[in-house]
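Good day; I would like, with your permission, to put a structural problem before you. A protein sequence and the structure tokens that stand for its backbone fold form the material at issue. The record follows directly beneath this note:
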Amino acid sequence: MKILYFAPIDWDSILQRPQHLARRLSEFHNFFYIEPLGLRNLKLSDLGRVLKRLSGLFKRQGSQGRLHTKNLIFIPVINHYIQRINLSILKKQIESLTGDETIIWITSPSKLMPDLLARLKFKVLVYEMMDDYAKFHPSMEKDIMETETWLINKADLIIATSSALLEKAKKISKDKKVILISNGVDYEFFNQTMFKKPNDLKGMDKIVGYVGAIDNWIDFETISFLAERCEALNFVFIGPLRSRDLPARKNIHFLDKRDHDMIPHYCNFFDVCLIPFKAGEFADTINPVKLYEYFALGKPVVAYKMKELIPFSDLLYLSEDKQDFLKKLELALAETNTDVRLKRKELAKLNDWSVKAELLNDALSRL
């Protein structure tokens, strides 16, 4: 089988679900990782990313065994006239990859997709719901919902990463096959035996940490509240800075993106790990990758109550409000139970990316 995977993130972005699954599924199939086509018109803040994509246009047209990355040429503008041009140039770039043995796998509801798919030959259509994109881009909610509804009704298989997204898909099309494949972890990568304390953590004693994108879905008000009341703690955030409204306190440290190979080393020296998302409907659609990464190290985790975290409430500390978050943080810092740490590791091992890839491959094979 040949899989054309229309990815939601660039290949050289932070290593996440798309790249992990691409690497593992390429053990079974010829896997073409097609870089994002986008959901919206460009903003000035996108200029750096666009230039990077252009500079890597030919460099990233590479292959590693049966895994191939493709960076397509198209006009990053959404309107009726430009879309007709894009459909023509995109078809020319990928039609040689399509045919009776091709699986087309869509991961975001780009407005281009319905018309592009009508021009291509393929065997199976898969739609993977990783996020509630309409909530990411409220100004485009109508267009996104129309495209997503079309994809859900057209797809032969729908993959949801959270129970909320599973329910959403089933409401749109009750007769379609929808499966839940939650996120996972590279267990061996995180569960190392030799750790080195990163230089920028040296001199810090008690550390409360988070790894991931630093964006507007983080509850900075709660972080500032905690940092003010726990001056002896260092609150460390590792990941690309995408929010300008960052709290400025001397015990809050934003370290920006770090080399992926160093992430387990940072997490290992966190006394407590955070999933500091704002509570609410948006957070309830997320199955956090970082939960499994923290658990692979056996770390105590504190978060607001999120739908996807409730099943693990005996293994982490779920909070109702800021005062409760502070209380749960204190409990997590005082944790001495080694059995619960082993249970976290066991859960992470059961959710290794290789397990997720096998489940997905079985579903694809049945199609």
Remarks:
- Residues 23 and 257 are 22 Å apart (CA to CA).
- The longest helix spans residues 80-94.
